[in-house]
Specification:
This protein has helices at 3-15, 58-65, 90-95, 113-120, 130-136, 138-142, 153-165, 183-198, 210-216, 234-239, 241-248, and strands at 18-29, 32-43, 47-51, 72-80, 83-84, 98-101, 171-175, 202-206, 219-224, 227-233. The protein has 250 residues and is α/β, with parallel strands linked by helices. The chain has a single domain, classed as P-loop containing nucleotide triphosphate hydrolases (Rossmann fold), CATH 3.40.50.300. The structure holds adenosine-5'-triphosphate and magnesium ion.
């Protein structure tokens, strides 16, 4: 490593301590060993792209951070803003500021857009107000009385993100937010994620559309069968054809 790089890293470390940290995380579905000793950091206000081929363990890693019951975290440490998550259950992790937007979007059937958001705001501390969420996603405001499950795919993704922001979160976990969406809707959501980042949100984004995720992200890690094979800047991945071919098939 060049002296310049070392200095840059040292400066980065001095000014931006790890805000979220995963250290030597091992997680299983039953006897299936999926997350195999994963360590990485995310700094405050940073967007990290978590990439890798199908089945690499990306969703499993997000679910582990959110402390879902499966996969089961058997060893390792997770810390958000210096508070341990590895010894918590999912509702405590949510209370401590982990906001997972799952691939399924998890819109609650039978409830309107507004009721879906309000439900997220039941337990304090409150995050974004309804007005602020509708400012960010005017389509949600227009459809506030519509049943959430009848929204288009893109609108459901907006609702899922809006619901996460409605709670006072410190770490936003996005699992394939662009999946199945037309390019014009992807652009619309990209714009809102840029805005959310400007508000200082720390984010981990998982995406099959690696180029789109890398355009948004500051840093990237690549998972391959549950292990990290790359940890560096998003630009390094975009510029490195071999890396992209080998691990991302792009
Ligand atoms: N509930 C489960 N029980 C058993 N194995 C599972 C379960 N969920 C996922 N797996 C396995 O764990 C591995 C990692 O899956 P995961 O969903 O984390 O991958 P991924 O990187 O998110 O893939 P994709 O890009 O397809 O979404 C896969 O081999 C998958 O079959
Ligand atoms: Mg997945």
């Amino acid at each position: 490593m060049s002296t310049e790089t070392l200095e840059k890293n040292a400066n980065h470390a001095a000014t931006a301590p790890a805000y979220f940290e995963a250290y030597d995380v091992h997680a299983y579905y039953g006897e299936s060993y999926i997350v195999q000793g994963v360590s990485f950091n995310v700094h405050e206000g940073e967007i990290l792209a978590l990439l890798g081929r199908n089945g690499a363990g990306k969703t499993s890693m997000l679910r582990t951070i959110a402390r879902m019951d499966d996969p089961e975290l058997r060893s390792g440490e997770l810390r958000l803003d210096h508070v341990t998550l590895h010894d918590k259950r999912s509702h405590d992790a949510a209370q401590l500021g982990v906001g997972l937007v799952p691939e399924t979007r998890s819109i609650i059937p039978g409830l309107t857009v507004e009721e879906n958001i309000k439900l997220a705001q039941i337990a304090p501390p409150m995050g974004w107000s309804l007005d602020r969420i509708y400012d960010l996603f005017p389509r949600l405001g227009e459809r506030r009385k519509q049943e959430g499950t009848t929204l288009s795919g893109g609108e459901q993704q907006m609702l899922a993100i809006g619901r996460a922001l409605a709670r006072d979160i410190k770490l936003l976990l996005l699992d394939e937010p662009y999946e199945g969406l037309a390019p014009v809707i992807v652009q619309e959501i990209e714009k809102t994620l840029h805005y959310i980042r400007e508000q200082g949100m720390t984010t981990i984004i998982v995406e099959q559309n690696a180029v789109a995720a890398l355009k948004l992200a500051d840093r990237a890690i690549i998972l391959e069968t549950g292990k990290i094979v790359f940890d560096g800047s998003a630009k390094e991945v975009l510029d490195n054809v071999d890396l992209r071919h080998e691990y991302l098939a792009i």
